Amino acid sequence: MTQSTANTSATTTSSATTAAGTATPARLAEDTSQGRTTIAASVVQKIAGIAAREISGVHSMGGGVSRAFGAIRERIPGGGTGAANIAGVQVEVGEKQAAIDLDIVVEYGAGIVELARAVRRNVITAVERMTGLEVIEVNIAVNDIHLPDADNGDEVPVAQPSRVE
Prior knowledge:
By secondary structure, the protein is α+β, with helices and mostly antiparallel strands. It has a domain at 37-148: Cation efflux protein, cytoplasmic domain (Alpha-Beta Plaits, 2-Layer Sandwich), CATH 3.30.70. Helices cover 27% and strands 27% of the residues. The chain is built from 3 helices and 6 strands; from the N terminus they run ββαβαββαβ. The protein has helices at residues 41-53, 64-75, 112-131, and strands at residues 27-32, 35-39, 58-61, 89-93, 97-107, 134-146. The strands form 2 sheets. Strands 3, 4, 5 and 6 form a 4-stranded mixed beta sheet that branches. Strands 1-2 form a two-stranded antiparallel sheet. It is elongated, with a radius of gyration of 19 Å. The relative contact order is 0.17. Residues 1-35 are annotated as: Disordered.
């Protein structure tokens, strides 16, 4: 005995992509005759941030400025929620696809190429599994390396002027 399922398609009028960080409407993930499911860009940001931090070798997320503001926010009662949870993660979410940009700080000694592959794979898997959106790209920018002796508050300069491009 064979069963057939009705495949409904719907047209939508919402815009295709927006940058995260602005008040954007939730995006369409599923539209059926039984109802509509929408997913906010901030949800995709949080999923991607959590998935990236799950990989061993990722010390923190965000560039220097966002990490500094995050440290200040964590000291303020109630300030450690919301935007602090998604520092270093920017997303563009369309109706069926998402693009993700990550800024990460890696632990010294971690293989950056292998780490980036693992982070990319984990983020894509988590976002696609949880949202149903197709992740078309995950761009990773390694902004810093965390040195073990930098935990005592002394900053150790890592960046040197480059002689090569």
